[in-house]
Amino acid sequence: MWKTMLECHHAQYITISLAYHSRSTTGTPQGNTRRQIMAQLQQEVECFGLSFANWVNSHASYVEALNGWLQNGFLQPQERSKNRRPFSPRRLLAPPIFVLCRDWSAGIKGLPSEELNNAIKTLLSDLHLLMEQQEEKLHKEDEVDVNNGESAGKENDRDDDVASNLYCIHASLTKVLDRLNKFSEASLKMYEDIRQKTEAARVAYLNCRPLRC
Question: Quick one: which H or E segment has residue 28?
Answer without folding.
Answer: none
